[in-house]
Structure formats: C-alpha cells, structure tokens
Write a structure and sequence with these properties.
Elements: H1 10-19, H2 24-31, H3 35-42, H4 50-60, H5 64-67, H6 71-83, H7 95-104, H8 106-132, H9 140-150, H10 156-172, H11 175-181, E1 185-189, H12 191-194, E2 199-202, E3 207-211, H13 216-231, H14 233-241, H15 248-267, H16 270-280, H17 284-291, H18 295-304, E4 316-320, E5 326-331, E6 360-365, E7 371-381, E8 391-400, E9 421-422
Parallel strand pairs: 1-3, 6-9
Antiparallel strand pairs: 2-3, 4-5, 4-8, 6-7, 7-8
C-alpha cells in the first residue's frame, strides 16, 4: 500500500509567522507547543502532522488546502498577486514567465515577496504619518481599535457571561427589574439635569440616571452597558490585564469598547442571534425588528459573531459622516479598509446620504485584486428634543466577495462575474494611475509635469 509523503512546510510556516507579526514563542503559545518545536518545523527538521495543520488552520483561520499547496504553485499564485499591483501595469508580465520564476527560482520569489511586503508596510506608515501629522506617539483611539481587531472582534469569555446574564435578566422581567433586585434604582431625567450625559451612575445613592429623551433601543443599550461595567467588571479586567497599553487613556478606551461589546452581547445573545441571522439570511433590518434594535446595533453584532469554530461571514464595519470623517471602525477580517483618512470616494458609503434610509450594495476590488462586497446605509441619531438637528451618519458592512451570496443582498449572484468598482485604501497607497477621482498622488510616484498635455486624470506619473 502506498504511503503518504511527510509534509515539510518550513519556509511557508516561517513566512506565515512573519506575516502575522509573531515571534516563535508567540506562535508556540498559540499552537500549544514548544518554541524549539516551531524552530524545527521551520528548518524542515520535522514534518507537519495532520494535527498541526488543524491547529494552524484553527488558530489563524486558514484553509488547510492552502497550507498544503505545492510550494511552486503557492509562489506562483502569490507572485502573481503582487504583480497585479497597478504600479506594474505598464510592464508586460506573461503568466508563463511568472510561473517559471516561481518554479525555478523559489529563493528569488521569496525575496521579491519579502521586498514587496516591506514596501507596502513602509508606504502605509508614511501615509499614516502624512495623513495624521503623527509625531510617533500612538493615538489612544487607534490603539484601542487595534486591541479589539487583534482578537478578531470576538471574546468568548464575554459571550459566555453575557448569555448567562441575559437569561437571568429575562427571568427577572427585564434589565430594570434585574437591577432593582441588585439594589440599583433606574431613573430617567431631563438632559439639563444630567448636564449632557446620556448615562451616569450615582454610587452613593445606588441610582442609574438615564437621559429621558433616549428612544427604546438607546435606553436598552445604556442599561446593558451599565450591567456590563458592573456585573462583568472582573471579566473586563481579566481581558485587559495582560495587554500593555502605551497610556491610561488607551486602556480606558479599550475597556469602553469591551463594555460596548458586552452590552451588545447582552441585548442579542450569541445563540439566539445566530439563529435569527441564519433564518433571515443576514437581513440587517429584519434582524433589528426581531430584537427591537437598530440597524447600527445589529451591524455591530454581525462583526462580533466571529467564533472560530462557526462558519459565519466575517465583516468589517465603518461609520462616517458626510464630510468623510470616520468615527468608528470594527474589524473582524484583517483587511485594512479606510485606516488612513477618509475612504475612497468611489465607494458608495459616500453616496448613501443622497437617499437616507435606503440600502446600497456594491462589489469592490482593491488594487491587489482582492474583491469585497459592501452593504451601506445611513443611520440617524435623534436628540429627542424640538429644534435639535438629527445626526446622520453612514454605516458600511464589508465582507469578502465569496461570502456575499450567503446574504440576502447578493443571493443567487456569482462574485466572479459581478461588475466591480475599483477602489483604493487611500489615494496615498493606490497606484491606479488612471483614476479620475484621485485627490493626491501616491507615495513613491514622480509626477510627470507636461504643459502641452492635460490628461483626464488629475496627475500623470513617470514610468520610473
């Protein structure tokens, strides 16, 4: 009987570790093995077992088939992806030559891939410094966002505790009665009494004070947030304890983000929520009506439903105003959407303000060829008082194109055949020379000045 060949993936494992930004010790901890064993695997002194493949796939959300690809085919695919960058658009790069390079010169291929990775990271760092005027200090809001993103927006401890508490609250007859049983009285007061606070806890009198102008979903969320801060305070502390924040402010913002996560999990417990999602095909408005929540709250919860063992659609969420200012980013996908300045103007998240309350869908393609599906709609926050203008923002949920047909918004469609809109993460990082919507030139390209020719796009660039 023929025996299977041992599987050696040393270079690929080392490359994966570096792409994830992990040390051998960190990867060993994730996989529950010793750092020395990681070193042996990377030097091809030990084969990768089926159990190790499964651990890698589970820990880092990878496809086992991709991990086990032939090295030459893998290099050819990855080099081809790199060469799709618009910066190479004017160079003739036949697929056969790319395949020959990958198969015959894997070392050169690896060097090219490393160089391109370093180039894109440096570009992103330069763009971030230019956009934010950064002095090298870490923005505490960005640090809190990165903390949440590092966990892929999923915290099993909070999910389990939230399900327990939600059951207790239902038995008690609601959050107010549950709090009353704990000795906390809930009072709704006018905004001028609360001095522009939506929620304030009076510890001395054990009173939770809420703005009386809040609507039903907002009241429920503020009640749930208080419960998260108090009944789940030890759970929040444990999650923050081992992380080194650069400032107390960043830690406070991370705790606020975790409390908001927990509050949403209390309002829409995981098991009940995923059943509602599956029954309604990710129809956000239908799910919101089912739970008595808002479009934005359900969108948040969809990003959070990212349990590794489940087969859910991973989403990225962005919230912005009409001026393009981004006020919220929730990332469970690892895709660096709109991390620098405002999103690409070709993305329909900008145009939904023209038709408030209507959902707009769009197929997107990044310069590296990655395709995504976007669901965007405006959300409105009312002050609850006459004469106060409502606050209108746009919410966009984005998933990988191949996952889109699982939602009601793209059911029955074929992602590969759908008409796509080419967008960029930022003008500074997008090398599509023909883009007419460009605001500024990309980093690293020299502008071609020519008084005798005015191209249709804002800038022309030299080939070198």
């Amino acid at each position: 009987m023929a025996q299977n060949r041992p599987l050696y993936l040393g270079p690929r494992l080392r490359r994966l570790r570096r792409e994830l930004g992990l040390t051998q010790q960190a990867m060993a901890a994730d996989l529950e093995i010793s750092p020395s064993y990681i070193a042996l695997l990377e030097r091809n002194q030990r084969p990768v077992t089926a159990d190790m493949l499964l651990r890698l796939a589970t820990s880092y959300r990878l496809d086992i088939g991709d991990l086990a690809l032939d090295t030459g085919e893998d290099y050819a695919r990855r080099v081809s992806d790199v060469l799709r960058d618009p910066i190479f658009a004017d160079i003739d790069l036949p697929a056969l030559e790319v395949a020959d390079l990958a198969m015959s010169f894997p070392g050169v291929s690896e060097a090219l891939l490393r160089l391109y990775t370093a180039y894109t990271r440096e570009q992103q760092a330069l763009a971030e410094r230019e956009e934010t005027g950064s002095t090298g200090e870490v923005d505490p809001t960005v640090e809190a966002q990165r903390y949440m993103a590092a966990a892929s927006m999923h915290f099993p401890e909070l999910e389990a505790r939230a399900e327990e508490l939600a059951a207790e609250i239902d038995t008690a007859g609601g959050a107010e009665k549950w709090l009353a049983a704990k000795g906390v009285r809930v009072r709704f007061l006018p905004p001028d009494v609360l001095v522009n606070s939506l929620r304030r806890f009076d510890r001395h009198n054990q009173q939770l004070l809420l703005d009386e102008t809040l609507d039903g979903p907002a009241r429920a969320f503020q009640l749930a947030t208080h419960i998260a801060y108090t009944a789940m305070r030890l759970d929040l502390a444990r999650l923050l304890r081992d992380h080194r924040f650069t400032s107390p402010t960043a830690q406070v913002l991370a705790r606020r983000a975790l409390a908001g996560y927990a509050a949403t999990a209390l309002l829409m417990p995981y098991s009940r929520f995923v059943r509602a999602v599956d029954a309604r095909g990710y129809d956000i408005e239908a799910i919101a009506r089912h739970f008595g929540s808002t479009f934005e709250q359900v969108a948040h919860r969809l990003v959070m439903c990212n349990r590794p063992a489940d087969d859910r659609v991973p989403f990225f969420l962005i919230r912005m105003d009409e001026a393009g200012n981004v006020s919220k980013r929730l990332d469970a996908t690892g895709v660096p959407f709109a991390m620098l300045g405002g999103p690409c103007p070709l993305w329909q998240v900008h145009t939904v303000f023209r038709r408030p309350g209507e959902i707009a869908t769009q197929w997107l393609e990044l310069p590296d060829g990655q395709r995504f599906f976007s669901i965007a709609r405006t959300v409105t926050a009312y002050d609850g008082r006459f004469g106060r203008a409502p606050l209108v923002r746009a919410i966009a949920l984005v998933c990988a194109a191949q996952d889109a047909p699982r939602t009601v918004y793209a059911a029955g469609l074929t992602p590969d055949k759908a008409p796509v809109t080419p967008i960029g993460l930022s003008c500074r990082l997008c090398h599509r020379a023909e883009c007419r919507a460009r605001a500024v030139p990309p980093i690293g390209r020299e502008i071609l000045a020519d008084d005798t020719n005015r191209p249709t796009q804002p800038f022309s660039f030299s080939e070198s």
